[in-house]
Amino acid sequence: MQKDQKDFLFSLLDTPSPSGFESAIQRVVRKRAEKYADTVEIDVHGNLTACVNPKGKVRVMLAGHCDQIGLMVTHIDDKGFLYVDQIGGIDAAVLPGTRLMIHGREKSIPGIIGHKPVHLVPANDRGKKIELSAVWVDIGAATAEEAKKVVAVGDPVTFAPYRELLGENILSSQGCDDRVGVYVVMEAMRIFAAEIKKKGSHPVALYAVSTVQEEIGLRGARTSAYGIDPQVGIAVDVTHASDNPGASAKEIGTVLLGQGPTIARGPNINPVLEGLLVETAKKKKLPWQSISAPRATGTDANAIQINRAGVAAALIGLPNRYMHSQVECVDLRDLQNAAQLIAATVLGISNKTSFIPV
């Protein structure tokens, strides 16, 4: 990974973007996309769409969602402590002792999630499930009035920025889900644009979309797909890695960091497009892993597939350890291989390519 690629990836990870509050990260994406795309637009929903070769007759949509899980301030008590509810799927068990950032209209401030010391917990209460309603955020305020000078009900909250390389290739960070998918989509667009510049023409109009609000119901993919009306759509999201003691290959399949992106197979996936991805991976000698998807996936691929009269959809997964925690882990090589696979697959599509699965 070159320095400019790494800088873009790290900028994505360092920019807070809870669902519904993605404006800041879309500015980061836009700055990058404008270097390579023919057009860059942001719609009323907040989706960013970068298009290369808009005159192409085969519309292909790539989607990675830029929103992350988070919290929202719901109450400020008389002692200045904040109470919160979840934005997206957060397990309250990972929250005690967590460092946070509360994002007000004017500025962001730090906070921490307090926790009763084990010395003070009655023996019969130890080990009980933690409920989000019992979690409080400490910002150092002594009164409600003091707290309300810097925060307000409705302010979004994210994990404090954290990013670390474990060894040479494993990147640990909050919010890999799915800012790494946005990185892959924009990197695939960059590769595609460079090839188009060499060739001079291509039948594909490529739409690379940084979608919003995936974590609360695939909302951005639904509206952006409707606007683009693609014939082909490839979603890029993280997928559970099974190569750690907290995961079981029997439950989620064998998915290993560093062994390439996953290519999903199942009813949410167009079999012709899946076959084209597999064929391309083999031809280009790119590592890949197969994963089953026996039902509608909880990803943008679901919304894209059932758009309008139907879209030939595929799902590329980026193996991820410890999903929806503060220390998600991905392998940088998987990101690069995913971008190359997608770009090469799209470049192989012609006017004659049929995705009708019969």
SSE layout and pairing:
Layout: H1 3-14, H2 23-33, E1 39-42, E2 48-52, E3 58-65, E4 70-76, E5 82-87, E6 99-103, E7 108-113, E8 137-138, H3 144-148, E9 156-159, E10 163-166, E11 170-173, H4 176-199, E12 204-211, H5 219-228, E13 232-240, H6 249-252, E14 262-265, H7 271-283, E15 289-292, H8 300-305, E16 312-320, E17 328-331, H9 332-347
Parallel strand pairs: 3-12, 3-13, 13-16, 14-15
Antiparallel strand pairs: 1-2, 2-12, 4-5, 4-9, 6-7, 6-9, 7-8, 10-11, 11-17, 14-16
Rg of Cα set: 21 Å
**Count of individual domains:** 2
Strand order of the largest sheet: 1-2-12-3-13-16-14-15
Report, as a whole number of angstroms, the end-to-end distance: 40 Å
Profile the largest sheet.
8 strands, mixed
Q: How is this structure best described in words?
A:
This protein has 358 residues and is α+β, with helices and mostly antiparallel strands. The chain folds into two domains: 240 residues, Aminopeptidase (3-Layer(aba) Sandwich), CATH 3.40.630.10; 91 residues, Peptidase M42, domain 2 (Elongation Factor Tu (Ef-tu), domain 3), CATH 2.40.30. Helix content is 28%, strand content 26%. The chain contains nine helices and 17 strands. The strands form three sheets. An eight-stranded mixed sheet has the order 1-2-12-3-13-16-14-15, with helices on both faces. Helix 1 runs antiparallel to helix 4, helix 4 packs across helix 9 and helix 7 packs across helix 9. The radius of gyration is 21 Å and the shape is globular. The mean pLDDT is 95.
